[in-house]
signal-recognition-particle GTPase (freshwater metagenome), 468 residues
Amino acid sequence: MFAQLSNRLAVALRNVRAKGRLTEADVDDALIEIRAALLEADVALSVVREFAKTIKARAVGAEVSAALNPGQQFVRIVSEELTTILGSNTRTFKFESGKPTIVMLLGLQGAGKTTLAGKLAVWAKSQQRTPLLVAADLQRPNAVDQLKVIAGQAEVAVYAPEPGNGVGDPVKVAKDAIKHAAGRNDVIIIDTAGRLAIDTDLVAQAAAIKKAVNPTETLLVIDAMIGQDAVITASTFNEQVGFDAAVLTKLDGDARGGAALSLVSITGKPIMFASVGEKLTDFDYFHPDRMASRILDQGDVLTLIEQAERAMDAEQSTKMAESLKSGDGFTLDDFLEQLQAVKKMGNLSSMLAMLPGAGKLQNQLDELDDKQLKRTEAIIQSMTPAERANPELLNGSRRARIAAGSGTSVVEINTLVKRFSEAQKMLKRGTIPGVGAIPGVARQPVKKVKPGKGARRSGNPAKRAQQG
């Protein structure tokens, strides 16, 4: 997700991050690279110009010049402004009180509306609601059948009185669905027709359905991979039909990110949800601050914890939360538990991509699969409890033993330990350099360790045994 943009911005910020003094020329040089990165990611020119203008105004003022670390202060400003153009605050879904919540989905053909309807239904179920999917896309061949299949996978009800394939009145279907839902369903999700491009018929039909049902939430489904076309589509729908918020699909693809970084500024409408995979559960709120953090390769610890909580039982979740907040930090035992939990979800690379600094390992993350997951599990399981709790114990002979026991190489063990150590340090501190505290993770005092402590083994065989 946004890998190309993240890499370009990392290069742009590298030169200023460690500067003890930041001149206006330094700021200008960094902004040249930042503008190039954003334009290459398909961000609208007007958004790029305003973004750069705001950053410069803040960066050459007292806010940076008076800072103890101007370079890191500059990175923080970039993070804050990224958050702003992504929408600043998370836009939550509105549920009606005392009557059904009606959701109307808009979008072009191929944006993923029908699949998104199923994802939204599964999400509504997780909020203790009883959703109904409505097949009002009567234009696209087999759209009705596809929605029926998705409803079956989501284990929710579907209202599909018309066969589709050009037959039936979508406005009547939408109105009748509300009557059908009375006493049965409290969330009604209407899947409407799309076109390859916006035309008069599409706009007229969408406007007629909206007028007939007066939806609680009108959501525009946007394919994140289509760049500037996404902004044009959103602007046209906003002007001619109107919508309350956008939903980005296919964020797990090789998206440049321009849609997400342009939509809010140009349309004035927030991004409410993000769809990041093929499973019906790969769907959740879009958090602007978390997305900005990921784009700048500073991780997304809160989402990581939330995903782990959904995959773990209550006891595991509590244990993991405490390990992050306590002075003991995040251990390899915690890491192994998360790997096993993510194995159930089937998306290891997505989880690891949320760790701070993951962008530096993008090529390795892209190559992660079930086979690699098993090798990582084997490495950790071949360690003693003491080694998993304190990787500093892993001297050369121990690493050779682990390599032999796990069927891997010492190089693979070195790589795993190095990656884990970088993430662990950041989590223990509870801060991200240049940005500040990680929300929800208490900052811990840095413990001073005497030279050699933890790495030196006792000469007493009994004590060596206790050390693991």
